[in-house]
Structure formats: C-alpha cells, structure tokens
Fold this sequence. Notes:
The protein is of the alpha/beta class. It folds into four domains: 3-132, no CATH class; 146-297, Reverse transcriptase/Diguanylate cyclase domain (Alpha-Beta Plaits, 2-Layer Sandwich); 311-426, TIM Barrel, CATH 3.20.20; 429-480, no CATH class. It contains 19 helices and 13 strands. It has helices spanning 3-6, 8-13, 17-20, 23-47, 54-82, 84-99, 112-136, 146-158, 177-182, 186-201, 228-243, 272-288, 299-315, 358-368, 371-391, 405-408, 413-424, 436-444, 461-479; strands at residues 166-174, 209-214, 217-222, 246-248, 251-253, 257-265, 294-296, 324-332, 339-350, 354-356, 398-401, 429-431, 449-451. A hairpin with a 3-residue loop joins strand 9 and strand 10. Helix 4 (23-47) runs antiparallel to helix 5 (54-82), helix 6 (84-99) packs parallel to helix 7 (112-136) and helix 13 (299-315) crosses helix 14 (358-368). The termini are far apart.
Amino acid sequence: MKLNHKLYLYSFLANFAWLKKSYTAKIMLVAFLGTHVPLLTLLLSFVISNSYSLEMATQVMIIALLATLAGTAVTLYALNHLLKPVIFTSATLQNYLNTKTLPQLPTEYADEAGTLMADTSQTIYKLNELIKYITNYDDLTGLPNRDLFRDRLHQILSQPENNQHLVAVFLLSIDDFTGMSHGLEHETTNLLLRAVAQRLSTCTTQTDILAHLSGDEFALARIDIHSFESLIKLSQVLLSTLNKPFSVEGNSIRITASIDITINNLNDRNSVDQLLQQAHIALYQAKQQGRSQYQFYSPEINAQLQERLTLENELHGALERNEMLVYYQPLIDLHSGQVTAIEALVRWQHPTLGLISPAKFIPIAEANGAIVPIGEWVLRTACVQTRAWQLAGFTPIRISVNLSSRQFEQPYLVEIVNQILEETGLKITAEGVETQEQLEYLQMRGCDEGQGFYFSRPVPADIIVSMLQKSSRQMEIIAA
C-alpha cells in the first residue's frame, strides 16, 4: 500500500503554517468547510432568486446561518473529543520517550481508535521489558549483569528486617582465562562461558543472586548464612563443579577457578561498590596462591594490595631516576677464604621508602614487563664493574647475573648479552643448551661455555668421574 497516495489531503494541509503542527486544526477546518460550503451555496442561490421578497430572504438567511453555526459548533466539539484517542496516544508515546513513564491507555474499546490505543500500550510495555532486559541482563549468559547485581544487593542491604543477618559475596574468576581464550575460537569461548554460568546456577539457592560481571568474572551473593563453614563448603562445591571437564562442540575443556569471599554485616553501611572492591582484593590473593583456590577478604590483604599498587606506580621510571642499585655477594672458598665468584643482585633504593626488598618489587616487575630493561641494566652494570676491577689489577673472577624468564622471551636477548660482553671484554656461559642448532648458534655469537642436556643430563658421581678423566686426556693431548 502506497501511503503517499492516501495522505495527499493530509500532506496538502500540512503545507499551511497555522495547520502544520495541529492535527485537530486540520480536522476542524475540513469539518467547517464541509458543513458551510454547501449551505452558503444554497443560501446564495436563494438570495439571487426573485421568488421571495427581500425581507423574507433576509429572515431565512439569518435563521439558516444561526442554525448552521450552532450545528457546526456541536460538530466541531464532538470531532475534537473523537480525536482524543489519537491525541492521547501521541502524548503518551512522547511522554514515554521523555520520562520512561509507562502508559495508562484504555484497552477495552474495539474500534480503530481503541485498537490503536491498546496496541500502542502493549507495544510500549513489551519495549520497556526488552529495554530492562538488555540493560540489566548479560546477553551472553542470560544472568543478571553488574548493574542489576549491584541494585539487588543494595536492596538487600537496605532492608531493615535484615539488620542482624550477614551477606557473603563470592567473586569467581577462571584461572588463566586470557591465555586459554587465545587458544580457542571466539564462539567456543562464548559457549564455554555459557556452560560455566549453567553449572554455577546448579549450585545456587532461591535466595542467592548469581551474576556475570564481565569476561570470566561471576559473582554470587548469599544472604542466608548459617556458619562460616557453610561458606567454605560452598566454595569447595563451586570449585569442584567447575573442575569437571566441559564438552564444547565435541571438545573436552578443563578449567580451574579462583574464588574470593567477602562477608558483610547487613548492619554495616558499607556500599555495594566497597563490597565488590573487597571481593576483588581477596580474588587477587586467591590467584596468588595458585589455581583452584579460595580466599577470604581481610584488611591485611587490602594493605598488601595497596602497597603493591604503590610500588607498581613508583617502579615506573625508577631506572631513569637512578634509584636502582647493584649489590654484589661473594662466593667464598671455605678452605682458603678467597673470593672465587660473585653474584650480582639488584636492589631498589627508594627516595622515601628506603631500600625495598627484591621479594616485593621483582614480582611486580615480572608482571608488568619492567624486569626486561631492569635485567639488561643489571647485566651491563655488573659487567662494567667486573671489567673495572680487572683494570684495577684484581684477578679476573667469575660473576653471575640472574636473568628473568621474561627476558628469555625477548627475540634479541643473545645479541644484547653478546654486545655487552664485547663492550666489557668478558666471556659468557650459556645454560640450557639442548640441541645442535642451539650450540651452533651460541658458537657463532661468541659464547665461551655451555651447559645443558645436549652435553649431558644430570648424572651420578661415578659417571662424572669418567667425564672428568676424558676431559683430562683431551687437555693432555692439546698440551702435547
């Protein structure tokens, strides 16, 4: 159906400025013209006729005009009220768009206007439900999202009848989810998360609130707590439930998860956001302990995390600010008392916090990648210092420098090490040589010594004796 042909009169009238914004005015104009034009034509023909006297014609015209005006007024009044369903429906739609107020349109009428009101009301209610679902529920798992979880938890915390109760929030996160998802297709990962949500749902009660917060994070709030032991048992049930293999698109996938638990007295006015923050703190601690662990929140954990965050911020730029130091620990020959080797150890001299233990800042540097430039600086500094001792007349001595696993992931590690050694005139011992290709690569790069499975696995002492004897014979042949 071509609506432009059906709306020609409506479109024509909309061209007039005084009619453009009022549908009622359009109806009134059409009604007025429809009732007056025929009458005026009749009266005009009556006036110009010679059949009646002027007095009689005037009297008839006045009576006809008054009757027409009265009839028109009644007609326009009735039309105006008959248009109320359309006007009311339009106003209701506009009010919903502006204020999200649901309509109160009547639905008991069966004509076109009644159908319009009923259909509009039903459509708005359905649209409102859809918007609420999209706003409050996760489209992947169908569980409440973070906003709805916070709202429901806030409602529970605000209820005066729950003053003497406790609420426990469990925050669950899949271990190494980022690494695992890189090895799976996107759709497979989504199916896995849906399966996780379904399994978690089997562990909940009617009063629990289960939500999918984001990514691999799920939250569960339990209000009816009988004992702390019941919380531990629930944590164990959740972990064991997720430890069972998942069948996704014909593939068997195993996962583990970490859980944090934070408990709040409903008497306490802690906000929901604070509860979730505490839960994330405990989750961090649980992940630090390894896979498939649960951890209760405590202020001590919070203090440790705050310290870590402070150190992480301060660690950025510490190398450029010359706050890093290299300390040296000697290896002593217990018989002669001589120094036979030295180990280079990095230290952080913070301007306000003092000397910071490597046990605190090394894990942070490992996690954020700062260990790579720090490790290279330690190697260079130790080699330069060793060369300086040699130039000062001291006997050359072996020095060891610890390298991080993150440094071994760098593609140019060997080149960097070789460059530093060439600059300082030192030699290097490479550990972990396992193949002929690795040996040839190290030889081409000027490496002096090597250790690894390619030469020998760890063996008993009697085999080492035979290896030492063979090495001695080779030395004698070379000397001869």
